[in-house]
Amino acid sequence: MQIMSERTINHPGNKAQIDAQWARVRARLRQEVGELAYRSWLKPLTLGELRDNRLRLVVPTRFMRDWINGHYAERLHALWASENAAIAAVEVCIQPAIPLRKPDAPEEAAQDQPAAQPSATEARKLAPVLRNGADILDDDISAPLDPRFTFKNFVVGKPNELAYAAAQRVADSAAVPFNPLYLYGGVGLGKTHLMHAIAHAIRERDPSRKVIYLSAEKFMYKFIRALRYQNTVAFKEQFRSVDVLMIDDVQFIAGKDATQEEFFHTFNALVDQNRQIVISADKSPSDLDGLEERMRSRLGWGLVADIHATTYELRLGILESKVESAKCSVPPKVLEFLAHKITSNVRELEGALNRVVAHATLVGREVTLETVQEVLQDLLRANDRRITIEEIQLRVAQHFNIKVSEMHSPRRARAVARPRQVAMYLAKQLTSRSLPEIGRKFGNRDHTTVMHAVRKIEELRSTDSSMSEDIELLRRMLQS
Ligand code: ADP
Ligand code: MG
Question: Using one digit for the tens of pLDDT, what is the confidence trace for 286-308?
Fold first, then answer.
């Protein structure tokens, strides 16, 4: 809603200019905070007036205003200042709304129309139709499901077979097989796909079962809104009456204490009633930072299934299945090339295939290896630069003339322990893996072992010149 008028914006810059500046500020914010946060918090912002060098931005609710002020005020100000030097202050304010009956927000209802306080029963009736962000009792709290994310469309391979089997078990069992099912793995490896597949399968088999799928961020958003409107009882009831609750990307609520607390209670209530819970995260429960200990242990109670990085075979399988379902023709050589080159994750792999196919359709020519290399130049370069721990282990083992298997072995003889430490050190330096992740790749060692290795090698680099040369050489080899 645009409530800016020509009259209020005559200085400095006309309305069209300010609109353009606002569009750029929004685009930058969107990039900075990510799509989800942008949609939840920043998209509802609208331009208000600009007067006396103060720019007003308008939001629908007090809660959103406080949230934006608490989280994005500085960025908003900085971005606006860089767009329009005349703006000295940015103010976020609540829409001067047409008075709404907000039974669950007494402080506002009281200000607006003290006589309109409805009774508690009336409040319950009113709640579902509240507008302006107060609709926390919307019937369907579940996020929409992607119709393509089914079990049928999921290609199973070594890296994801456990997660897949566990997801199927959850979908097929009348009883709760394990609680929670905790799926974890890096981005774009199929966590969301599997969760949607579970929801599809259960809804199809038994539409009477209430299945709710939502992101942890959405959970938090709804919870905070409930707090804001003092509607937490309804909020709790809503979540606690489900048969299957799936929360995606739970790492998001790490460090958000109140939300975590509420989630913990919801979680316990559901487990006590023997309802199924499915969780996904980017890390295992023990590696999730900012999580309370009781939460962490509770999350690990059921089945924890790790989705590993893709293998060449899985990538090829996925490409073949996508080509088949899209009914387009791509030569096997090209698929092999893509499977070989795009190793980061399935999302990128899909994206690459889509680009190749779109290009071929547009120019009306057949896909060849040459066109692929041309079309995917940027992607291929990015994937080339990524160094894996396996590669590091291999190069280091070759360099020190030991077997690669020694990287995982428990042997502690200096002749193998030192190269292993070098490999751990390089893994820390050259990849974005965390210490626990690195430890796991070295025969399930503890993260403190990795930390020790990193320190040790750092120390040796400054005292032992041949060691420092070895490391430089390895680094150059790996990065070339
Ligand atoms: P995550 O939630 O782990 O980040 P997604 O579930 O969103 O990843 O998966 C990213 C994309 O890759 C989706 O389009 C999904 O359909 C696809 N994908 C991932 N794994 C597979 C698989 N094993 N088979 C088919 N498609 C997959
Ligand atoms: Mg996901």
Answer: 888 888 888 899 999 999 999 99
149 lines ligand 1 (CB under 6 A): yes
> Which ligand has an atom closest to residue 345 CA?
1
Confidence (pLDDT) at 444: 95
Tell which one of 346, 348, 349 to mutate to probe ligand 1, the residue whose CB is within 8 A of the most ligand atoms. Answer: 346
DSSP 287: G
**Whose CA is closest to 245, among 228, 230, 265?**
265
**Could you tell me if the CB of 267 is within 6 A of ligand 1?**
no
Checking if the pLDDT of 342 tops 80, the result is yes
C-alpha–C-alpha distance, residues 206 and 88, integer Å: 58
Residues at Cβ < 5 Å from ligand 2 ion = 191-192
- Predicted confidence band of residue 68 (pLDDT cuts 50, 70, 90): confident
What span, in angstroms and rounded, lies between the C-alpha atoms of 13 and 26?
18
Q: Is 161 in the pocket of ligand 1 (CB under 6 A)?
A: no
Q: Alpha helix (H) ranges present in 173-213? A: 191-205
Residue whose C-alpha is closest to residue 316's, from 296, 338, 331: 338
Residue 318 CA to ligand 2 centre (angstroms): 17
Among 103-107, 384-388, 429-433, the least confident range: 103-107
Q: Is the pTM of this model over 0.70?
A: no
In angstroms, rounded to a whole number, what is the distance separating the alpha carbons of residues 346 and 378?
17
Closest atom of ligand 1 to 307 CA is 3
Average pLDDT score, the chain: 83
Closest CA relative to residue 56, chosen from 15, 17, 35, 87: 87
| Residues ≥6 apart with Cβ < 8 Å to 56 | 48, 49, 50, 90, 91, 92, 93
Are 389 and 438 a contacting pair, CB within 8 Å?
Answer: yes
Q: Quick check: CB of 310 below 6 Å from ligand 1?
A: no
- Atom of ligand 1 lying closest to residue 153 CA: 25
| Alpha-carbon gap, residue 289 to 295, rounded angstroms | 11
Residue 188: per-residue pLDDT? 94
Q: Which ligand 1 atom is at minimum distance from the Cα of 317?
A: 24
* Domains of the chain: residue spans and CATH: 12-94 (3.30.300.180), 158-307 (3.40.50.300), 312-385 (1.10.8.60), 389-479 (1.10.1750.10)
